[in-house]
Amino acid sequence: NAGVTQTPKFQVLKTGQSMTLQCAQDMNHEYMSWYRQDPGMGLRLIHYSVGAGITDQGEVPNGYNVSRSTTEDFPLRLLSAAPSQTSVYFCASRRNPGQHYGYTFGSGTRLTVV
Amino acid sequence: GENVEQHPSTLSVQEGDSAVIKCTYSDSASNYFPWYKQELGKGPQLIIDIRSNVGEKKDQRIAVTLNKTAKHFSLHITETQPEDSAVYFCAASINDMRFGAGTRLTVKP
Q1: How does DSSP classify residue A108?
Q2: B93: Cβ–Cβ under 8 A, 6 or more apart, which residues?
Q3: Is the bond into A8 cis (omega within 30 degrees of 0)?
């Protein structure tokens, strides 16, 4: 199993550009989330999904959109990139949201907005 | 929403000593408490977890304790080794998961 796969690993954007960060998992996990990691601030939840067709906002959703058309894929879209969105982005998945299981994380996407 | 505080932010110990990292949470409904280890350039990896109906859990050199009344939980690493050096995150979960700010642990040989 590949686990959680994120692409790209690195990206540089200009202010105002848009892009999509890809995330795919092959573990048939229902629950998927996007986090951003900034120095001294830990991991902050952007958006999450409890299953195909269902998404919800986390702590810091502004400037980001998500969709969940399949169980496997959970892309994160930056609508108009800003320097404040420079961060490392992690996608994570876990089993049944009604149970308690730890996340499996992807290896991250390092995004720089100039 | 849930708020998780983690202390200390940095911790340096001598090889063979013990390390303790503490976290507090705000929402008494949280019922799942995992700990993650993140090595440089990698995603966080689950190392141990505890559920709200358990007070303590141990896995070799790693143990976690939970005090639901006080709303705090701790990670204990005994006989530390240089390969334990990493950033450690605690988290608390009802459905979505909220993380502490992290502790950078350095184990000196």
Answers
A1: -
A2: A100, B2, B30, B31, B32, B33, B34
A3: yes
Report the C-alpha gap between A28 and A95 in whole angstroms.
8
> Who among B1, B34, B96 is closest to A48 (CB)?
B96
Neighbours of B43 (CB within 10 A): 23
| Confidence check: pLDDT of A12 > 90 | yes
HEC assignment per residue over chain B: CCCEEEECCEEEEECCCCEEEEEEECCCCCCEEEEEEECCCCCCEEEEEEECCCCEEEECCEEEEEECCCCEEEEEECCCCHHHCEEEEEEEECCCEEECCCEEEEEEC
How far are the Cα atoms of A3, B48, B98 from residue B40, in angstroms, in the given order?
19, 19, 21
> In this complex, do B44 and A107 lie within 8 Å of one another by their Cβ atoms?
no
**C-alpha distances in Å from residue B62, one per residue of B17, B18, B39, B77, B80:** 13, 10, 17, 5, 10
| Residue B42 contacts A where some CB pair is shorter than 8 Å | yes
B4-58: pLDDT as tens digits: 999 999 999 999 999 999 999 999 999 999 999 999 989 999 999 999 888 999 9
Mean pLDDT value across residues A29-57: 92
DSSP β-bridge partners for residue B86: B105
A25 touching chain B per CB within 8 A:
no
